[in-house]
Amino acid sequence: MAVEISRLHKGNKVINKVYQTSNRSLKQLTCGEQGKIVNVPPNSYLASLGFRMNKIVTIMAKGALNGPILCSIDGRNIALGQEVAQDIIVD
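^ thats the sequence. predicted structure below, dont judge the formating
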């Protein structure tokens, strides 16, 4: 779980607010779970498949023994390797 800290300046005081975010990698989602992409590696191949910021992705199936992960994005089913899915961050 990631922690985000915001600093607010109010007069001469600095107020720290801590927010907990639930960012996880695409690999960590379970079958049927959805997530909104918040970070994707700068890879033109992934962008051409539809993996872009703020897109909703659903995990359809996960292969056994580190097999591929079947994702649904923009109405298409796409299989990704576990290493690639690890680098895609969703909220």
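The first helix runs from residue 44 to 48.
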